[in-house]
Specification:
It catalyses: L-fucose + ATP = beta-L-fucose 1-phosphate + ADP + H(+). Belongs to the GHMP kinase family. Takes part in the salvage pathway for reutilization of fucose from the degradation of oligosaccharides. GO terms for molecular function: ATP binding; fucokinase activity. With 1083 residues, this protein is an alpha/beta fold. It contains 36 helices and 43 strands. Strands 1, 2, 3, 4, 5, 7, 10 and 11 form an eight-stranded mixed β-sheet that branches. Strands 30, 31, 37, 38, 39, 40, 41 and 42 form an eight-stranded antiparallel β-sheet that branches. Strands 13-15-18-21-22-23 form a six-stranded mixed β-sheet. α22 runs parallel beside α24, α28 crosses α29 and α33 runs antiparallel to α34. The chain is elongated and about 120 Å long. It starts with a strand and ends in a 5-residue tail after the last strand. The relative contact order is 0.06.
Length: 1083
């Protein structure tokens, strides 16, 4: 069967033709995974007869592709013109394969691709498609590619074909030894790469003529390209007898089928060194002899091909660094392909344990591989062993040279009782007259399946006679009298029990052949319905086998999810989630994530599990339903959220899952459900961050007199390196480090708060913000607890200040006592709180968090308490969780701790922030002040939108984000060292690196106008980066020369498209946070 796909893959409109003996959805799956490019169209093309050969199959597939393209173009008849702008790939799936029931194409390889967008088993077909995509087909003109899938092929990544002036057909060749070529095909080409002849299994002296300067011969590796013009000529032959018999049209018309080889019929006639006489007399490999009628039809077919294609030039593309291995019927060769040998082990793609869950990996010796399997308990593997698609339970010892495939956990006991060495044990899904059953086969690694028993044939690596003596089996048990002794071989020996009249069969009913028979075993074997491999292969149930492999893949995938989440691994689960949704396993994944979230003792693990559920729901929406970010306060989810807020995580997860079932019917509902799961995740993040409250220490002090002000003024913060690593959950899951400066802007501390006691039992709040764009003043009076209820809505008027009253426990919001009663009983009256910021909204200088610290400090003091800086830093974390803004700790560290410092947090809970002052050389602070400038960009940043995306990417553990988190921390440490050394150039380099790291963390955080500013300033600065999260606000620059404000002002004034900007001086504030108690009223 041939499967055709039309796609935008390879930057072209490609058509794939997949040939196979039965229908298979595997290419459709790869289309859904995105492996075949955009908008592919797949067509399945069945071979007209079993033995039309690779040439006949190619012609038939080409005809179907032309019909399809003709119909798409609006034609009512087949026209070859449609090939002129088509890129076609024909994949020949080949014959049955002894060691994989799903054919050579779908033989799984021991590899994993950590960068793949969709996690999946890597089959030989996937490897070939990747090789064709990235190396072989790249840049080709329109035409037809033909590729066999019965080989393992590797092409160097830098390999490239020069298509300039190409005409005709081109074959692909890789180097091989003369000895290897004697069993395969080889090209004879001249120095210009023009093919002179194609040899197959030729004597050594003939092959020597093909040896190149590298001492190797160009092996036939099963890949051919026909230009569009050549494909038209080949297609034209399908109407000419006897070639019409290669296509379904000819067979439907009653033409007798003929067998045609792609290489020795279609291509050989193009080889310049082949004469017409030699071509007409030659015999294709695999063709039988003695049938004069077929021989005559073959000669006639060759005559047609010679006339149609002889003038077509045939050239060879030779890849010196490539490799080719035919997937033969040798078990030794196959095991070698699947284990860590020279070539495979050196490949970065080789994975000893690929897509598998192995309980005790230390028991796997070097030189073995495990693919798509579950190994529970103590399962040890010797060198040269391969296990695929198995679920086994130890204790179990598999010695060297074994291949185990398709075995379930029930087989473990039988395996445990035998010595396993140099054997192949396989379980096969079969369908026998409508009955599905599992059949087991057993063979030796060194057995030749086609070698006659009387001519050195073996079974289980020993001569047949030895097997007969040891087991009591007789020759007539295996072969009928109709089978001539010279034809009796392992392939047609009825060895394998399939059904028994009275008892179920298991693996033990074949494994006993490894030893002497136990009581009744020989009789049980004899009375079973047995089949040979030759008979069994026609009953293989490929659909069930593929389904079984996928089920096992997602079973181990669920185990992987548990391990990744519970072990706090930085492995991304998003590729596995995408795969589960594509393959229809989303419910199993959701159930696993529900279980993890509800049983995890760590709220960080539960939060990540909820984030993964949100990803599953978003993937189920398939790109529809709207943006991921959005509101998450629908009343339907409120009961679940309340359970989580109360700390009842298992009950909350159960409620979430119950509600989720109502939101799965449409993409828009799925996206809204995903938003609510992210809202639930934020609740658990808040609870994790609340662990920092244990580091808040408050001491009682004397209450200030009524009317006396407590005043706090704070510097702004400039972050030089490490920002984003302080953001929960990154800060407690990865660990963070940020270098900050406390700074005066234009010579003053721009942020402050003041509070005093007042006789009236109420809260008066006055908040002033903004400076450059105009001041905005908010005034509120709170006389009832209801007035404080919107403290957790960040955009509500005075929300931060209301949250501060609650955070400092001045007010108990959940108390039975009224606001008036609380204030009178504890303080004899109320409070007036005034705050201000002379910085614009979204400045990036840490305004809101520093202001929160100032407010907490004045409220503590005015209510008769005091707290040190460390307590204030952690109290701000607490406040921002109450406020639901979810901020990090770098802003308050930067503004509350004086001077230059580096803040750090470890990857653990409870979250604790530790600050180290950075000692700098004498006079360096003065130097730094002369070289630092702040440039207000005139752009307002939207940090909350950025934050949502960053947290989503972090929870998905996208590799780029994880690597960037590492880089942020290491750059912060380097920046601290640069400050200690007083090295401006290194400091500037750290700032520039920081700029790039922010852009990786939050793409889009640097507006175009800001980029223009930075480009204009680039020659004059050591480094520059936007303050804070980015997106706008202030730009911090470290100039190469001191006091460059006027120079930069002039440069920017001459740069077009910058809009409103302004330059501001900046000085390191060595004093920092300042608190004063004032006895008199302030104006």
């Amino acid at each position: 069967m041939r499967k055709v796909a039309e796609t935008g893959h390879l930057q072209k409109g490609f058509i794939y033709i997949h040939t196979h003996c039965g229908d298979s959805p595997e290419l459709e799956v790869r289309r859904d995974q995105g492996a075949l490019g955009r908008h592919p169209i797949l067509l399945t093309v069945e071979d007209p007869k079993v033995q039309v050969g690779s040439g006949g199959a190619t012609l038939n597939a080409l005809l179907v592709a032309a019909e399809h393209l003709s119909a798409r173009a609006g034609y009512t008849v087949v026209t070859s013109d449609v090939l002129q702008k088509a890129w076609i790939l024909i994949l020949h799936m080949g014959r049955d394969f002894l060691f994989d029931d799903c054919s050579r194409a779908f033989t799984c390889l021991p590899t994993e691709d950590p960068d793949a967008p969709v996690e999946a088993l890597t089959c030989n077909l996937d490897s070939l498609l990747a090789t064709l995509t990235h190396q072989v087909c790249k840049g080709s003109p329109p035409g037809v590619w033909v590729c066999s899938t019965d080989m393992l092929l590797s092409i160097p990544t830098e390999a490239e074909i020069n298509w300039h002036g190409f005409q005709g057909a081109k074959v692909i060749a890789v180097p091989g030894s003369v000895s290897y070529a004697q069993k395969h095909g080889v090209y004879l080409a001249n120095a210009q790469g023009v093919v002179q002849d194609i040899l197959y299994q030729s004597p050594e002296d003939q092959i020597q003529r093909c040896v190149g300067l590298d001492g190797k011969v160009p092996l036939v590796c099963g890949i051919v390209f026909f230009s569009a013009e050549t494909a038209e000529k080949l297609l034209a032959t399908h109407v000419v007898p006897p070639l019409d018999a290669c296509t379904y049209l000819g067979l439907d018309s009653g033409a007798p089928p003929i067998q045609l080889s792609l290489f020795f019929d279609v291509l050989l006639c193009m080889a310049q060194g082949v004469t017409e006489e030699a071509f007409m007399k030659g015999q294709s490999p695999g063709m039988g002899s003695g049938d004069t009628q077929k021989a005559a039809a073959t000669r006639n077919a060759r005559s047609v091909l010679w006339k149609a294609l002889r003038a077509v030039p045939l050239t060879m593309a030779y890849f010196p660094g490539g490799s080719y291995d035919y997937m033969s019927m040798s078990a030794s060769d196959h095991i070698l392909h699947l284990t860590a040998h020279k070539g495979m082990a050196g490949s970065p793609a080789f994975c000893k344990v690929a897509h598998s869950d192995v309980a005790e990996p230390q028991l796997l010796e070097d030189g073995c591989s495990v693919t798509n399997s579950l190994l529970e308990g103590a399962v040890s593997l010797g060198p040269g062993c391969a296990i695929q698609h198995c679920c086994l339970k130890g204790p179990l010892k598999v010695r060297s040279g074994c291949l185990l495939t398709g075995l379930d956990v029930d087989s473990s006991e039988a395996l445990r009782s035998r010595v396993l060495e140099d054997v192949v044990v396989q379980g096969h899904a079969t369908r026998l007259r409508g009955i599905r059953c599992k059949v087991f086969t057993l063979s030796g690694r060194h057995d030749d399946w086609q070698c006659p028993a009387e001519e050195n044939g073996t079974y289980l690596n020993v001569p047949w006679e030895e097997l007969f003596r040891r087991t009591g089996i007789r020759s007539q048990d295996l072969w009928s009298s109709d089978t001539h002794s010279s034809c009796r071989c392992l392939q047609n020996a009825r060895l394998f029990p399939v059904l028994h009249a009275s008892e179920p069969l298991a693996l033990g009913d074949i494994l006993w052949l490894l030893d002497f028979p136990g009581a009744g075993q020989l009789q049980r074997w004899r009375t079973s319905w047995r089949m040979s491999w030759e008979e069994l292969r026609t009953c293989l149930d490929q659909e069930t086998e593929l389904a079984s492999r996928k089920a096992l893949f997602f079973t181990q995938g669920q185990s992987k999810i548990r391990k990744v989440l519970m072990e706090h691994s930085n492995c991304s689960l998003l590729p596995l989630i995408r795969s589960a949704v594509i393959e229809g396993y989303q419910e199993a994944v959701l159930k696993t994530l529900d279980e993890i979230a509800s049983t995890a003792s760590d709220p960080g693990v539960a939060a990540r599990a909820l984030a993964c559920i949100a990803d599953v729901l978003a993937c189920m929406a398939k790109g529809e339903g709207g943006l991921r970010s959005g509101p998450a306060a629908n009343e339907a989810w409120a009961p679940a959220f309340q359970q989580l807020e109360n700390g009842s995580i298992p009950e909350g997860i159960k409620e979430l899952a119950k509600e989720r079932k109502k939101w799965l019917s449409r993409p828009v509902l799925l996206i809204r459900a995903a938003r609510h799961y992210e809202g639930a995740e934020q609740i658990l993040i808040r609870q994790a961050v609340m662990s920092s409250c244990q580091f808040i220490n408050v001491e009682p002090v004397e209450l200030p007199a009524v009317g006396h002000w407590v005043l706090v003024e704070c510097p702004a913060r400039v972050d030089l390196a490490g920002g984003w690593s302080d953001t929960p959950p990154i800060t407690y899951e990865h660990g963070g480090a940020v270098v900050d400066l406390a700074v005066l802007v234009d010579g003053r501390r721009p942020i402050g708060a003041q509070a005093r006691r007042i006789p009236e039992p109420e809260l008066r709040i006055v908040s002033a913000s903004g400076g450059l764009e105009g001041e905005v003043v908010t005034e509120l009076v709170c006389q009832h607890l209801e007035d404080l209820q919107d403290y957790c809505q960040p955009h509500a008027p005075g929300a931060l200040l209301k949250a501060a009253f609650i955070c400092t426990q001045v007010i108990a919001l959940r108390s039975q006592r009224t606001l008036r009663e609380q204030l009178e009983e504890r303080f004899g009256g109320g409070f007036e709180l005034r705050t201000w910021s002379r910085l614009p909204h979204g400045s990036g200088l840490g305004t809101s968090s520093i202001l929160a610290g100032a407010v907490i400090a004045v409220l503590y003091r005015v209510s008769g308490h005091s707290a040190n800086i460390e307590s204030l830093v952690h109290a701000v974390l607490h406040l921002e969780q109450l406020l639901t803004t979810g901020g990090g700790w770098q802003d308050q560290v930067g503004g509350l701790v004086p001077g230059l410092k580096i803040g750090r947090s470890k990857a653990q809970l409870p979250l604790k922030v530790e600050v180290e002052q950075i000692a700098v050389p004498e006079g360096f602070v003065h130097t730094l002040n002369a070289h630092l400038l702040l440039l207000y960009t005139g752009k307002t940043r939207l940090a909350r939108n950025l934050l949502q995306d960053v947290l989503r990417n972090w929870y998905a553990r996208l590799p780029t984000i994880v690597q960037n988190a590492n880089a942020l921390v290491s750059n912060a440490e380097e920046c601290a060292r640069a400050l200690q050394q007083g090295n401006l150039a290194v400091l500037g380099n750290c700032m520039s690196n920081y700029r790039l790291q922010k852009k990786v963390m939050a793409p889009g955080c640097e507006p175009l106008a800001v980029q223009c500013m930075m480009e204009a300033l680039e020659p004059h600065v050591y480094g520059q980066c936007l303050a804070g999260a980015g997106g706008g606000g202030f730009l911090c620059v470290l100039t190469k020369q001191p006091r460059m404000q006027e120079v930069l002002q002039r440069i920017l004034a001459e740069t077009e498209g910058l809009g409103n900007f302004s330059l501001h001086t900046v000085e390191v504030d060595a004093a920092g946070f300042q608190m004063q108690l004032l006895e008199e009223d302030l104006p």
